User: What shape does this take?
Amino acid sequence: LASYGGTLDLTFMYLKPREQRDRYLASSDVIIEGRGIRLGYGGRYYRDSYNETISVPLREGEWRLLDEEGNARQLADMKEFYMVLLDVERLLLRASFHTTQTESL
Assistant: This one.
C-alpha cells in the first residue's frame, strides 16, 4: 500500500428491511493504521440497496487523525500520512451503514 498519491477505489452496497427507519451510522469509510497512527477517511451517509463507488485519495488532505475510539480530530499532515504508508499494520473498510442493516456486499 506504499502508493502515495494514488487512489483506493471501493464499490459496496448494503441491505436493510424496507420498513425500517432507524438510524444511519456515520463513521470513517476507510481507516489505515501504522506506526502508532490511525487515519480515517470519509464518513458520509449512504443509501441502502444502491451500488456506491468511492475513490479514496492516498495522500493527505481529507484524512483525519483518529483517537482511540475512532473519533476524528485534526487533518493529517503529509508527514503523518507518509509515516502510516511506510508501515501499514491494518487497513479497515467500513461495513456497517445502518442500525438495522441485514448485510453488506
